[in-house]
């Protein structure tokens, strides 16, 4: 199955670079490009891509506003925000908006390709080069940011669902969570699906943010066991 992708960035050279990397893959097809959020909304409505790679800072309508619209209006098109190191606050807002992940613009080509495939398959992708700083700065800190009280929602989870959410937020993959809790991977996926349903979340990426906002996991806590790619995946 071919993964269709739309590129959204106000810099033509950035779009050219992204297209060159992705077009070289036999299972990925770039079906359109847009230079701002307004163009992106129209293009996505016409092409219905599997994945949208979205820049943040653009004229007319920025990437965050466009991402919020796309998540609400075209849930079948998964949005990955492309970011730089100086846009932490923007990334935090994008995660809360329900995007499927974000990736640094300086990421190597193979990481970009893997990100597109992961998100298209229904997973989430968090680049730890920014993620940990975002979470530490904007989640789980009383009196900072606009995070709501999540106590009641957290209490709706069973103890096993809470365990799974905690490990997910600490960066473990489904395979690692299964090994840690002595469960099958299918069981872990079932627990995660129930967590999303109970909490009214649209992606596993949002579940990670929820875990920090609720205080279930605190900034700085880790569980180890990450893979070698440097990317936290939530398949």
Automatic annotation (TrEMBL):
* Statement: the UniProt record of this protein carries the keyword DNA-binding: yes
Q: Which residues carry this modification: 4-aspartylphosphate?
A: 55
PROSITE patterns attached to this UniProt entry: HTH_LUXR_1, HTH_LUXR_2, RESPONSE_REGULATORY
Domain (Response regulatory) ranges: 4-120
GO MF term list = DNA binding
Transmembrane stretches, by residue range?
none
What CDD domains does the database record attribute to this sequence? Answer: LuxR_C_like (cd06170), REC_NarL-like (cd17535)
Respond yes or no to whether keyword Metal-binding is given for this record.
Answer: no
PANTHER family linked to this entry:
TRANSCRIPTIONAL REGULATORY PROTEIN NARL-RELATED, TWO-COMPONENT RESPONSE REGULATOR
What is the name attached to this protein's record? DNA-binding NarL/FixJ family response regulator
